[in-house]
Amino acid sequence: MFSHELKPPPGAKRPRKRVGRGYASGTGTYSGKGLKGQKARAGAPVRGGFEGGQTPLVKKLPKRRGFKNRFRTHYSEVNLRSLSAFEAGTEVTPELLKKLRIVRNLKLPVKVLGDGDVSVALTVRAHKFTQAARAKIEGAGGKALEVDVEVGVGDSG
């Protein structure tokens, strides 16, 4: 099949509706707009959210509160539960977590959260640790080492 042989399937293209061309056309007299009223008049249709002179719902609601911090650092979060699968003495790095698909990508810095338990001694290298995570890792005989964040990493964009 060639590009000059392509054509739309039957029924996909319909002729445009010609309104106001007499009774026989089926859209004579009022041209399919019904009887009188705001929607039967010429001009643009009523905008979305217009309630006919009544106070619109949008105006009745309170305005948005607070603000969005543009400088907030977003982290890839890893729970201790996912680190419990490693063997004793393993050095857990962001690259290893990415390789094992625990972390989706390395664009965001990694933060270790304290949900779960670690029973073996691990050396965990991450950008941030919660106090609970650090205490549990060190309590099991491991080390929690912080890695510096590279410039440009963690930008929310």
The name CATH uses for the topology of the domain at 76-146 is Ribosomal Protein L15, Chain: K, domain 2
* Largest sheet, strands/sense/barrel: 3 strands, parallel
Number of helices: 4
Estimated share of beta-strand residues: 5-15%
Pattern of helices and strands: HEHEHEEEHE
Mean pLDDT over the full residue set: 89
As laid out across the biggest beta sheet, the strand order is 1-3-5
Q: What gyration radius follows from the Cα positions, in whole Å?
A: 32 Å
Number of strands: 6
CATH architecture of the domain at 76-146: Ribosomal Protein L15, Chain: K, domain 2
Based on Cα principal axes, name the global outline.
Answer: elongated
The residue ranges in which pLDDT falls below 50 over 5 or more consecutive positions are: none
Query: How far apart lie the N and C ends?
Result: 45 Å
The structural class is: alpha/beta
Helical percentage: 10-25%
Kindly provide the name of the CATH class of the domain at 76-146: Alpha Beta
